[in-house]
Structures are given as structure tokens and as C-alpha cells.
């Protein structure tokens, strides 16, 4: 089965391809099909993910999978949330992972409460008009470090410290990260939903 991934993020594609391999699902980035990015005007992850999935399905004519994810910082009332990808631009930096991390550490320099969570919402639709989209959510709570630690992963992985492992996401192996990350948890839920709803054994007629 071929699914359009409504994202052009190579890091997301690599993670999700590995996670969905057991189902025999082939993920194709929307950019490879000439599909432009959809607007993301909403304030919640689920609304943006659904909009992106429907857009990709509409243009491609294929089933689509969309992920909307971000960092929710307790001291900032859950922000940057859906604005995570553009977080650095609020402070005069160019868009990008390294600048996002830099801006976050600067904004939290005097903040004592370091609690935060990486949150991911996955939405899958069989078509643009699918009345029953599959929705899965994952949350990985942790603490924001004072400086980046580790070389693996992307995004905020180097500054997201996980007390249960005693290290950041960027210090975990790909296998351990995929099993415990926000996107990994959401993907596991989505796999189970797809098995149950889309790949269930056909009844004899």
C-alpha cells in the first residue's frame, strides 16, 4: 500500500518509514509528487494534521498520512506548540532546528521550571472525503537542558532530557528513540488502528 506523507521533513520520513515497515506500507513524500504544502492555520495539532492529510489525499488521489508535532513548554503555557517549526523566527533568527534550539535556550535562560513535552498527532485518511480519519497521539515528557547534548536525532532532541533514561533523545539509539518518542508512540497507535480498520481480514461471502 502506498501512502502519501504530507510532510517534506526528511527526518520525519526516515522515522516513519522505519515504523511503518511492518505493515508493508510505502511512504512517499508529497514533494516527490509535486504536492505543495497545505496551509496550517489552526491552533491545535489535530486540526492541522487533518487539514494536511486531506490536502495531500485530494491532490494525489492516494491515501495520506500527516503528522503535526511540536514542543509544549510548561512555563510558556504549552507554547510554542503548533508554531514550533517557526519558533526561531519570532526572535529574529532564520527558520531551522539549530536556531530553534538556540532561541529556546535563550528564552529559558532564567526559567526554573524546565518541564516540557514533545507532542505528535498523526492523522490518516483513505481519501480526501474520508468521514472516519484515523487519529493517533503520542506524548514524550521531559526536561529542557541548559545546553544541547548528543548528536543523534533532529529538532529539539538534543535539549529534551528524559529522566527515565538519564539522557537526551539525541543520545538514544534510533531503535530506543522510536520506541519512546512522541512520534514513535503515535505511530505505534496508528499501526494498530490501520491493522484493525484498514487491513482487517476480509469476511467470507
TrEMBL record:
GO biological process, alphabetically ordered: nucleotide metabolic process; purine nucleoside triphosphate catabolic process
Catalysed reactions, semicolon-separated: ITP + H2O = IMP + diphosphate + H(+); dITP + H2O = dIMP + diphosphate + H(+); XTP + H2O = XMP + diphosphate + H(+)
Entry keyword set: Hydrolase, Magnesium, Metal-binding, Nucleotide metabolism, Nucleotide-binding
E.C. number: 3.6.1.66
Active site: 68
Transmembrane regions listed in the UniProt entry: none
Pfam families hit by this protein: Ham1p_like
Cofactor notes: Binds 1 Mg(2+) ion per subunit.
Binding residues for Mg(2+): 68
SUPFAM superfamilies linked: ITPase-like (SSF52972)
InterPro entries for this protein: dITP/XTP_pyrophosphatase (IPR020922), ITPase-like_fam (IPR029001), RdgB/HAM1 (IPR002637)
Cofactor field: Mg(2+)
GO terms for cellular component: cytosol
CDD domains the UniProt entry points to: HAM1
Entry binding sites for substrate: 7-12, 69, 154-157, 177, 182-183
NCBIfam families on file: RdgB/HAM1 family non-canonical purine NTP pyrophosphatase
Subunit structure as annotated in this protein's UniProt entry: Homodimer.
Function: Pyrophosphatase that catalyzes the hydrolysis of nucleoside triphosphates to their monophosphate derivatives, with a high preference for the non-canonical purine nucleotides XTP (xanthosine triphosphate), dITP (deoxyinosine triphosphate) and ITP. Seems to function as a house-cleaning enzyme that removes non-canonical purine nucleotides from the nucleotide pool, thus preventing their incorporation into DNA/RNA and avoiding chromosomal lesions.
Record protein name field: dITP/XTP pyrophosphatase
Lineage, opening ranks: Bacteria, Pseudomonadati, Pseudomonadota, Betaproteobacteria, Burkholderiales
Amino acid at each position: 500500500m502506498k501512502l502519501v506523507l504530507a510532510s517534506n521533513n526528511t527526518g520525519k520520513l526516515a522515522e516513519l518509514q522505519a515504523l511503518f515497515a511492518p505493515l508493508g506500507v510505502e511512504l512517499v513524500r508529497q514533494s516527490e509528487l509535486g504536492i505543495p504544502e497545505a496551509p496550517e492555520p489552526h491552533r491545535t495539532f489535530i486540526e492541522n494534521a487533518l487539514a494536511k492529510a486531506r490536502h495531500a489525499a485530494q491532490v494525489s488521489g492516494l491515501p495520506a498520512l500527516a503528522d503535526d508535532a511540536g514542543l509544549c513548554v510548561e512555563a510558556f503555557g504549552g507554547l510554542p506548540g503548533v508554531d514550533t517549526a517557526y519558533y526561531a523566527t519570532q526572535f529574529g533568527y532564520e527558520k531551522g532546528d539549530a536556531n530553534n534550539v538556540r532561541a529556546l535556550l535563550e528564552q529559558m535562560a532564567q526559567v526554573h521550571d524546565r518541564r516540557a513535552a514533545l507532542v505528535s498527532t498523526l492523522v490518516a485518511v483513505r481519501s480526501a472525503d474520508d468521514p472516519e480519519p484515523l487519529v493517533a497521539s503520542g506524548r514524550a515528557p521531559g526536561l529542557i537542558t541548559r545546553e544541547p547534548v548528543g548528536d543523534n536525532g533532529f529538532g529539539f532532541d538534543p535539549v529534551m532530557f528524559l529522566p527515565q533514561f538519564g539522557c537526551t533523545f539525541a543520545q538514544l539509539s534510533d531503535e530506543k528513540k522510536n520506541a519512546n518518542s512522541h512520534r514513535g508512540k503515535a505511530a505505534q497507535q496508528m499501526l494498530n488502528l490501520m491493522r484493525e480498520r484498514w487491513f482487517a481480514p476480509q469476511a467470507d461471502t
